[in-house]
Write a structure and sequence with these properties.
The structure holds two protein chains of two kinds.
Chain A: H1 5-40, H2 56-65, H3 77-95, E1 104-106, E2 109-111, H4 121-129, H5 132-143, H6 146-169, H7 171-177, H8 182-188, E3 192-197, E4 200-208, H9 216-229, H10 241-244, H11 254-279, H12 290-301, H13 304-334, H14 342-373
Antiparallel strand pairs in A: 1-2, 3-4
Chain B: H1 3-28, H2 58-90, H3 93-116
Helix pairs in contact in B: 2-3
Classes of the chains: A mainly alpha, B mainly alpha.
Chain lengths: 376, 124
């Protein structure tokens, strides 16, 4: 974790900071979702509390705190209370491994701008974030209501079905970069579009070297599966209110409900972060390499520490711009597309997206193989 | 070594979440038992009839079993994908490529069989 006890403490504090960043992003996202839906549906949305209604969620939180604490008589109390607490964990622990900027070098110490670096980042994030299934099952069984149970079963079947397409879509990415490490993956996407194969070099100076240009089909499948993974419309069959009231959180209210919300938005953030990292160059700035940003910082501030801080800040901004665009796409899609029927949803996952993801894998493998063997 | 950070943040979030629940309980108070119907589970206003272990469609079970099968097959592709370019550099690429393609043919056969045996059919 670090060389000295001070570094260890800073690294541990950093994980808390990243977690609190996720938590405080939720009110902003909820505000964006409500104002955005109002914008799409040609109405005002919350605009009374604070400037542009920005403080609405604080008012909501204060109200949630004043709600009385309800457990159904027939419910399993331990599972009922554990589910919302557990809902926070998988999203936050997985998001820690996302590289958000270049490392910060101050004197002899190096601090990564992420919770912690995991060498097998992809496997780690997919594995930990898939544990959200347990949250839904705990909530479903804990409330012992049939709407909750049916919602939980639907949600978990949906999440594991789309897990297959999600996992297979990124085999192509792993093949392209030959690494599980997310930071290495970001560094491999620096500079202009170029690759070598068939015995020659190809390059296009006006395109950035992003994964989307090598894996367009994989990116589409990954993003669609990520919607299903985070239980967002058009895949939110788990809480289709016409059929299931509110799905696995029918019996929840007040602060416990809010914690499920934080978990759900956390999964949106993971999906957006992974899209950015795999297909859109991570924290890289198109047309401005990491070394150039660092040099600019050194020439402005006149010291290596200044250059490092400048580079970290600029790349952090770049990452968050891309990240915010994907979060907006999540919100926009929710208010644009209607909901599927459940059998259509499962058919789409198993019979359409899984074969296409497999096709993408075979295509990528074939092209890489031919490019290394033959000369045009 | 991220394990320390991971354990730390997991414990931190668990404590944080529990504290939030206790805070909400301290401020809002426990639900007052004004009537027996209030503490029932929600069933659209009808008196509750469903037992805890309601019956669930067998399709969910089949989906879970098939998920385990196919997910393990996909996990086998990960180390292959990771080392594919290295194998190509070593010159053993053709062997590795053809063996993984034959594995994928088995995968496709399994998926085709699962679809044909109607394991993935849902009531419309």
């Amino acid at each position: 974790m670090g060389n000295s006890s001070l570094e260890i403490i800073i690294n541990l504090a950093k994980t808390v900071v990243v977690f609190l960043m996720m938590v405080q992003a939720v009110p902003i996202l909820v505000w964006l979702e409500r104002r955005g839906s109002a914008f799409i549906q040609n109405r005002f949305g919350p605009n009374r509390v604070g400037p542009l209604g920005l403080v609405q969620l604080l008012a909501d939180a204060a109200k949630f705190l004043n709600k009385e604490d309800f457990v159904p008589d027939k419910g399993n109390r331990l599972l009922f209370y554990a589910a919302p607490v557990f809902a926070l964990i998988p999203a936050a622990v997985a998001y820690m491994a996302m590289p958000m900027s270049t490392p910060l070098k101050i004197g002899d110490s190096t601090f990564l701008i992420q919770g912690y670096e995991v060498n097998v980042g992809i496997v780690f994030i997919l594995g930990i974030s898939a544990m959200a299934v347990y949250t839904m099952l705990m909530a479903g069984f804990g409330s012992s209501s049939k709407f909750s149970l049916m919602g939980a079963m639907r949600a978990s079947a949906q999440v594991i079905s789309y897990e297959l397409a999600l996992g297979l879509a990124i085999v192509g990415v792993i093949m392209m970069y030959g690494t599980f490490n997310l930071t290495d993956m970001v560094l491999a996407q620096q500079g202009a579009f170029h690759f070598s194969g068939f015995g020659r070099e190809f390059s296009l100076s006006f395109l950035p070297n992003w994964g989307i240009f090598y894996q367009p089909l994989g990116a589409v499948i990954f993003f669609a599966a990520a919607f299903a993974e985070s239980n967002r419309l058009p895949f939110d069959l788990a809480e289709g209110e016409a059929e299931l009231v509110a799905g696995f959180h029918t019996e929840y209210g007040g602060f416990k409900m809010l914690m499920f919300f934080i978990g759900e938005y956390g999964h949106m953030m993971i999906a957006s972060g992974l899209m950015t990292t795999f297909y859109f160059g991570g924290y890289g700035i198109p047309g401005w390499t990491i070394a150039e940003v660092y040099q600019t910082g050194v020439s402005i501030f006149g010291s290596e520490t200044g250059g490092s801080i400048f580079s970290s800040v600029m790349h952090f901004l770049s990452y968050n711009v891309k990240f915010a665009i994907f979060l907006w796409i999540f919100i926009h899609v929710r208010w644009t597309l209607p909901r599927f029927r459940y059998d259509q949803l499962m058919d789409l996952g198993w019979k359409t997206m899984l074969p296409w993801a497999l096709f993408n894998t075979i295509l990528t493998a074939t092209v890489i193989f031919l490019a290394s063997q033959y000369v045009i | 070594m991220p394990l320390g950070g991971m354990i730390f943040i997991t414990i931190f979030i668990a404590v944080f979440g529990t504290a939030l629940i206790f805070l909400a309980r301290a401020i809002g108070g426990l639900a007052k038992r004004t009537s027996a119907a209030k503490m029932e589970i929600y069933e659209c206003g009808i008196k509750e009839t469903e037992k805890k272990d309601s019956k669930i469609s067998v399709n969910f079970y089949l989906t879970a079993i098939l998920f385990i099968l196919f997910d393990i097959e996909i996990i086998y592709m990960y180390p292959w994908a990771l080392n594919f370019k290295d194998f190509l550099k070593d010159g053993t690429g053709a062997l590795v490529f053809t063996s993984m393609i034959s594995f994928m043919v088995l995968f496709i056969f399994g998926l085709w069989w699962a679809v044909k045996s109607k394991a993935l059919e849902w009531e419309k």
